[in-house]
């Protein structure tokens, strides 16, 4: 599925998550704000999305995508003469045929719908009249989680007519329909005259401040991201805990309430909000949870004991700080993905150019090149990494994953591009310098197949750098579990 569905679509595709689109959208909102780019972020409301998929279009699409005929026939068999009936008390149920839509409850439905929607997303991406945010060699026009589509448009006056034309064409072919009346948008740096033109031509609800996408309020002012989202969630959680306190729930049952209801809601926000959460707020919520667990009475068991898994004598009560840190560190691991796998990672690498976050963070602070971005999401991840890297034994200093290039200890490569290998080789990190514990030989295919083979000077420069005591020790240091996780995120990204 990952090869058929573009990375812009993150719904129901293995290895993709909803937070990817909220983080990318927050990055683009910051980009539009910092560059004063006239832009419109439009959230499309699909009318009965899964129920409007026309079967002839879907089956033809599967054949066009190269699915084997037996597979297509098997899918057609699942949709052969299905019926439904409405049960009303006192009347006999009358079955009626179903002629469109994906089957409710069928495990195949999400994947089929993602395939069904992909032609529309492809046409929106490729239409030259629809302008998105161009960064480097990439253009960012849309994000999708199943039928939840967010368009990020520049030049909205010329882009909107093309968008509406593509939606109308796809609707006639497939049955998919967008409720323009219920679609919402947030406008940034658009003149009042242009806004009046947009409102007059399309019944879109345009807000100057905030748009809701995937349960997250995305504000036009990046500094409001925390205030628009986390305080309302805290207030709602406190109300829920207070209302549940009235019921006779066992002590263990209260722990399960936290694990099954409160934690999933918090975890989504921990992942989806690319901004710092004040420690005071997390502590306050943890105290509120403790008050609920103990029904306002004195604690009889230490909090650390409750946090332990059941098999080590605890109850598995969620430690909110641990979940918050884990959710944020998982995105640092994703920074190490290959180009093209995650669109938000590609965008943030471009924003940090000429450095890359998955290389830059492994350098000790005094050796880091000047950071060339003020993107809040990137800065938040870096601050969290610097706070936890040594405190939680995530890495050693210097790390074996430290880059060779853009490293102040290696001046010959300091001005090179971060994504390049040294002199055309694939050597990018210290851990690659000593395969088998011995410095890489000049006859090694990595060296002999590069420009360093014709000019021995770069090889000797690299050897002199690698033989420094602290560099050699770092290169030969075993990787920590977190470093292995980053290395295994894929092959180490260039």
UniProtKB/TrEMBL annotation:
It comes from Leptobrachium leishanense. Pfam families: RVT_1. PANTHER family: REVERSE TRANSCRIPTASE DOMAIN-CONTAINING PROTEIN-RELATED. This is Reverse transcriptase domain-containing protein. SUPFAM superfamilies: DNA/RNA polymerases (SSF56672). Residues 1-218 form the Reverse transcriptase domain. It comes from the Eukaryota. CDD domains: RT_nLTR_like (cd01650).
């Amino acid at each position: 599925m990952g090869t058929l569905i573009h990375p812009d679509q993150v719904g129901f595709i293995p290895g993709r998550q909803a937070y990817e689109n909220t983080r990318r959208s927050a990055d683009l909102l910051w980009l539009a704000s910092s560059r004063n780019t006239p832009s419109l972020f439009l959230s499309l409301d699909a009318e009965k999305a899964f129920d409007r998929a026309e079967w002839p279009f879907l089956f033809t699409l599967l054949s066009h995508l190269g699915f084997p005929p037996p597979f297509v026939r098997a899918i057609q068999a699942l949709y052969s003469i299905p019926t439904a009936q409405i049960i009303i008390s006192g009347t006999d149920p009358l079955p009626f045929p179903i002629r469109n839509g994906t089957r409710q409850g069928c495990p195949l439905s999400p994947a089929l719908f993602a395939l069904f929607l992909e032609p529309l997303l492809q046409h929106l991406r490729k239409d030259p009249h629809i302008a998105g945010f161009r960064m480097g060699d990439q253009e960012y026009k849309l994000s999708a989680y199943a039928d939840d589509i967010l368009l990020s448009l520049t030049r909205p006056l010329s882009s909107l007519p093309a968008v509406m034309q593509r939606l109308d064409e796809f609707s006639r072919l497939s049955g998919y329909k967008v409720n323009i009346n219920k679609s919402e948008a947030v406008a940034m740096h658009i003149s009042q005259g242009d806004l009046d033109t947009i409102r007059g031509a399309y019944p879109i609800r345009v807000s100057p401040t905030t748009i809701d996408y995937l349960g997250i309020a995305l504000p036009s002012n990046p500094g409001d991201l925390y205030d628009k989202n986390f305080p309302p969630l805290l207030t709602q959680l406190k109300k829920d805990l207070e209302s549940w306190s009235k019921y006779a729930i066992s002590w263990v049952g209260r722990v399960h309430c936290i694990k099954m209801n409160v934690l999933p809601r918090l975890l989504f926000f921990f992942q989806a909000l690319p901004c710092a959460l004040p420690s005071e707020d997390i502590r306050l919520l943890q105290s509120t949870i403790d008050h609920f667990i103990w029904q306002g009475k004195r604690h009889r068991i230490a909090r650390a004991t409750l946090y332990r898994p059941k098999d080590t004598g605890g109850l598995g009560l969620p430690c909110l700080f641990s979940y918050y840190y884990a959710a944020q560190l998982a995105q640092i691991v994703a920074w190490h993905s290959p180009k093209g796998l995650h669109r938000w990672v590609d965008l943030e690498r471009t924003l940090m150019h000429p450095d890359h976050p998955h290389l830059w963070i492994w350098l000790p602070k005094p050796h880091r090149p000047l950071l060339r971005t003020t993107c809040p999401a990137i800065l938040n991840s870096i601050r969290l990494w610097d706070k936890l890297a040594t405190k939680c034994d995530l890495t050693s200093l210097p790390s074996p994953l430290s880059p060779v290039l853009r490293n102040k200890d290696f001046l010959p490569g300091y001005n090179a591009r971060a994504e390049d290998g040294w002199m055309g080789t694939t050597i990018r990190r210290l851990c690659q310098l000593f395969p088998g514990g011995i410095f890489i030989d000049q006859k090694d295919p990595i060296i002999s197949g590069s420009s360093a083979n014709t000019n021995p000077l770069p090889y000797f420069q690299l050897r002199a750098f690698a033989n420094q005591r602290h560099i050699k020790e770092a290169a030969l240091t075993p990787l920590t579990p977190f470093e292995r996780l980053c290395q295994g995120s894929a092959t180490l990204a260039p």
